[in-house]
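Task 17 of the worksheet. Students: predict the tertiary structure of the chain below and write it out as structure tokens. Keep your answer in the requested format; marks are given for formatting as well as content.
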Amino acid sequence: MVQNITISASELVAQANAAVRTLTVDQARDMHRRNDVVFIDLRDIQELARTGRIAGARHVPRGMLEFWIDPKSPYHNPLFADDKRFVFYCASGWRSALAAKCAPDMGLHPVAHLDGGMTAWLEADGPIDPPKE
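Model answer:
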């Protein structure tokens, strides 16, 4: 049977962006290093190896996010039980928009995502933790 894709990935991202809090780089920089804010890097390990990550960010692979959030999951990460604000980011803001839409549906609040992702952060000379050797 031929698949009939009725909504594109870009449409999903646009819907997510319309429903979530999106931060500019300047807004994210203002929140960076606050004790009540955790930056979550959703990119894959190869992307981190190329560019490093936003200074102090925690790495959570996008494919595991829901499992790490869920306290009943065997993969739960206690990071997501803390009373924190979460800022998701990826390379350009697509995966993070989808994640920022999904996480509140699970009960995680407050969340936002970085418009332009790591690309925008690097262009703005935001502080990074360099790639590990």
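Marker's comment: The mean pLDDT is 96. The beta strands are 22-23, 37-41, 53-54, 58-59, 85-89, 111-114, 128-129.
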